[in-house]
Amino acid sequence: MESILRGCLQGKALTRREAVSLSAVRGEELAALLAAASELRDRYKGKTVTFSPKIFIPLTNLCRDFCGYCTFRKAPDEPGAKTMTFDEVLRVVRHGKLLGCTEVLFSLGDKPEAIYPEMRHFLKQIGFRRTLDYLYDACKLVLEETELLPHSNPGLMGRKDLERLKHVNISLGLMLENISERLMLASGPHFDAQDKKPALRLKTIEEAGRLRIPFTTGLLIGIGENWDERIDSLFAIRELHQRYGHIQEVIIQNFRAKPEIPMRDHPEPSLEEMLKTIALARLILGGDMNIQAPPNLTPESYQLYLHAGINDWGGVSPLTPDYINPEAPWPALLALSKKTAEAGFVLKPRLAIYPEFIFQGEKFIPPSLLPYVERLCGADGLVRGQLFQESMVSESQGEEG
Predict the structure, then answer these.
(1) Does a structural domain hold residue 10?
(2) Residue 202 located in a structural domain
(3) Is the pLDDT of residue 396 over 90?
(4) What CATH number is given to the structural domain containing 223?
(5) How many domains does the chain contain in total?
(6) Domain span holding position 158
(7) DSSP for 60-100, written as a single string
């Protein structure tokens, strides 16, 4: 194991066989694995840990998939079913802008019009045929009216939609979750979710690479996969990034059991599993990759992720909840900054596109979007000026009040 870890720190690419052997470590060997991942992160990323001050827009929670762990999706007749109007979107985004947010995260169900006449009727009434067309106009409106940067996660996308959305989104995303076809078998988490077919998701990520779209993807940990499948998923991401260079961040997200989901009795992944997966992701994907884990899903011990190799907390909103995990509130920015500092790091806000992609200019950013990015970012490619500090002051005054 020492030889494998030493090789990683010397720039050698981790092999699948080596990764599988590392996945079995425990105790002192696990501590050595985490230490190596942290050292590799430090060499490439230094002591800065970033987050994106975002506004979470659940454009529609109607969806044609039925994943075993999801509380976000709704049928039209269910309580809480909602498709936002453009006016509602703008109202929330304008409020978020006042709080210093720079990212507008659009999350939505995958092609709900395919199974719900109600969605088809809604779209037809306002002149659209597909949800992706509605998303395009929503992103365009936000961009032009507020100058904040949209980042959309609309599920599977073909080349034409990716190319179109690229011009109104600074980045796009699609969680791979896992590459295993086994998870689509009866009783598996993806059995009734046709859009979770790994080959289709990999195709979307690859098309984004061909189009030079800065892209977010990642793994969902603890939904029934084994270590081999986690490692295979990370290697699939590595292969696509080596080919196209477009994956700007990889999320390692832990499954959370909820009383209203089919997987309510499924065990959640342990903290050790998460730490080990993060460390393996760092060693497999290398020091250059941005690796994040959501702090709100492990509120008691998220700071330990910093000792496994992450360099980013993902999107954190001072305004809107995590609509995917509504039971898990975001940490306050003051608390997040404090815990990050206690671990020896400095917390800084970033845009929905990372500095290394900003610095490549028009290779990854359409010329029409460059002015929006330049208005928001400083010379270091992170959020310009005092937006973050102003948000912290406002939050502090709110607590004192």
Answers:
(1) no
(2) yes
(3) no
(4) 3.20.20.70
(5) 1
(6) 15-400
(7) E-B-S-B-TT-SS-B-TTSTT--B--HHHHHHHHHHHHHTT
